[in-house]
Specification:
Number of helices of chain A: 12
Distance between the termini of chain A: 54 Å
Oligomer: heterodimer
Distance between the termini of chain B: 44 Å
Largest sheet of chain A: 2 strands, antiparallel
Strand content of chain B: 15-25%
Order of helices and strands of chain B: EEEHEEHEHHHHEHEHEEHH
Structural class of chain B: alpha/beta
Structural class of chain A: mainly alpha
Largest sheet of chain B: 6 strands, mixed
Radius of gyration of chain A: 20 Å
Strand order of the largest sheet of chain B: 6-7-8-3-9-10
Shape of chain B: globular
Largest interface: A-B, 25 and 33 residues
Helix content of chain A: over 70%
Strand order of the largest sheet of chain A: 1-2
Shape of chain A: globular
């Protein structure tokens, strides 16, 4: 029992990180109808920026770990704002009212550009982000189960940060006039313009928000695994999450992430031995495939019905 | 009638618009006076919607200019038009389908919201007061349009006639000086048309809003408009009071076809 719970918990923690990346997809898709293929590249770019800034700050003799991380985070956020602004100016603004596919192809281009630019500015080695998260696991429920459960403190903190971010975002979307404008733009570009919502500013805002989400995801992944090129492929792991949860739903991204995280771990442990292991790698994609066959809009997505 | 028709507020001069080789509008000029209801009519494909889209800044005409309250523009910008006080509704509904009736109309207040994003999120102090103030205005519009019962319903679930009202409500939330209505009565039954006519007349009468309205159903337009422009194949073929237009031989032939 203890072992089962431990696996479950590990899955939930990993899932939370998938959710964080998936959230970036959902945000941009909700607000502009663009499937942003570059989300993974943005995670890498943000993480690289933060890793190098904190390294640089450390070298310049700023002792305090908290201060270093705070400043590095802020600087990386500013970099992500610039990236958002440039993307809007040079790419999105030229493509207003174009087909979704055209925009998707454009983000594919942005992916390669960002990956290249990130590595040529910040370097292509493996860097580390040290945000001072405790690495040692703690024992819990020792009295309830024989042997207790090992909980990774680092995962626990990561999950907490992710939860806070999600709460903030839903507050922003539901309660502020800018959030309302974002939802309006997502539904209908032209109508939004007719009531005086400035499309261009909204796009910059949403790419900025997605940039910050990418930064948080990059920071947590980076501090766990180190910042390296493979971070960009984290986005591919988050793809099944958005298919599962629905592209238009923030709660969907969270729950989708958790389901996939847990599913991966449990199937690896309990089904793995029968098929020779390695389930973790393909489990999410098979699940996504099944969902596409049965419920293509995902768990929480909007069903799209075209009236003829 | 309490309203008094004033000076020219919107003046369209020699507008020409073509898409590739197709001339949608050629050399159209007309003016709109403050507080009046001005209709643009014409058979299908006459260029009515194109005209409205030029005024609203969706299309940029190749020639001509538009003067709004003394300022002359060679082309309008959608966002700028809204800021200057021109709101519009759409022929094919363009509501924010996933949002409630209330939220849809609230988006119309967006331009007027000033308070800080952070304060809004936590509903603090001035932001709270501002939200309440806008909400009050929106509730007035909801009462006015008699859609109180559907306040929280996602607009996608409402019947067509009511969606048209929400579309009007969102435009009204801007408190516009000029309201552009693109076929507000298209696809409605007689009862719904009467309701919509009543709303348009009331908006014009109570708020003094200038209304520019497109319609291809002549009978409805003639009853509520002060002056009518008639378009056919992108050309202006008539302009005047409903009676003048009704007796204009060119208009009659455009609508009924010439006798052979």
């Amino acid at each position: 029992m203890g072992f089962f719970l431990e696996t479950l918990l590990g899955g939930l923690m990993a899932g939370m990180l998938y959710s964080l990346v998936a959230l970036g997809f959902v945000l941009i898709f909700k607000a502009s109808g663009v499937f942003n293929f570059a989300q993974g590249a943005m995670v890498l770019f943000a993480a690289l920026a933060m890793a190098r800034f904190s390294e640089w700050l450390n070298a310049s003799g700023l002792g305090n770990l908290w201060l270093v991380n705070l400043i590095a985070f802020a600087m990386a956020a500013v970099v992500m704002f610039c990236v958002a602004w440039v993307i809007e100016r040079l790419v999105l603004r030229q493509l207003v009212n174009q087909e979704g596919t055209t925009l998707l192809m454009a983000t594919l281009g942005i992916t390669y550009f960002l990956e290249g630019l990130g590595q040529s500015i910040f370097g292509s080695d493996i860097y580390k982000i040290d945000i001072g998260m405790p690495k040692e696991p703690v024992m819990a429920f020792e009295s309830t189960f024989p042997g207790g459960i090992l909980i990774n403190q680092e995962d626990l903190i990561a999950a907490l940060i992710a939860a806070c971010l999600v709460a903030l975002l839903s507050l922003f979307f539901q309660k502020t006039s800018t959030g309302r404008a974002l939802r309006a733009v997502a539904d209908d570009h032209q109508a939004a313009q007719s009531i005086g919502i400035p499309l261009n500013r909204i796009w910059v805002i949403v790419w900025c928000v997605a940039g910050v989400v990418a930064l948080v995801a990059g920071m947590i992944w980076g501090s766990k695994l180190g910042v390296q090129f493979s971070l960009a492929t984290v986005a591919l792991r988050a793809l099944p999450v958005v298919i599962l949860g629905g592209l238009t739903s923030v709660p969907g991204a969270i729950i989708g992430g958790l389901i996939i995280g847990v599913g991966e771990k449990l199937s690896e442990v309990y089904l793995g031995p029968y098929v020779g292991g390695g389930i973790e790698i393909w489990f999410a994609y098979v699940l996504a495939l099944l969902f596409l066959l049965v419920r293509p809009q995902g768990l929480f997505g909007e069903k799209i019905i075209d009236r003829v | 009638m309490s309203r008094q028709i004033g000076d020219v507020i919107l003046n369209v001069q020699n507008i020409s618009l073509s898409f590739g080789g197709v001339k949608a509008l050629s050399d159209i000029s007309f003016d709109v006076r403050e507080h009046e209801i001005r209709a643009i009519i014409g058979p299908n494909g006459a260029g009515k919607s194109s005209m409205l889209n030029c005024i609203n800044g969706v299309y940029t005409p190749q020639q001509g200019s538009i003067t709004f309250r003394g300022q002359t523009f060679s082309h309008m910008d959608s966002h700028q038009v809204a800021v200057m006080g021109v709101a519009r509704t759409f022929q094919n509904l363009a509501l924010f389908k996933g949002m409630s009736v209330l939220d849809n109309i609230m988006t119309g207040r967006n331009l007027r919201m000033k308070s800080n994003l952070l304060l809004q999120a936590i509903r603090f102090g001035p932001a709270e007061r501002e939200e309440i103030e806008h909400r009050r205005k929106v509730e007035e519009i909801i009462d006015f349009l008699e859609i109180q019962a559907y306040r929280k319903t996602p607009v996608g679930q409402l019947p067509y006639g009511l969606q048209k009202r929400v579309d009007l409500g969102r435009a009204l939330a801007l408190e516009p000086q000029v309201l552009l209505l693109d076929e507000p009565m298209a696809g409605m039954n007689v009862e719904e048309k009467q309701d919509m006519c009543r709303f348009i007349l009331d908006v014009n009468d109570e708020f003094g809003t200038t209304v520019v309205l497109i319609e291809h159903d002549m009978s409805v337009v003639m009853d509520i408009s002060d002056r009518v422009v008639v378009l056919d194949y992108g050309k202006k073929i008539g302009d005047g009071t409903p009676d003048e237009v009704r007796n204009n031989p060119e208009v009659i032939s455009a609508y009924l076809g010439t006798g052979h």
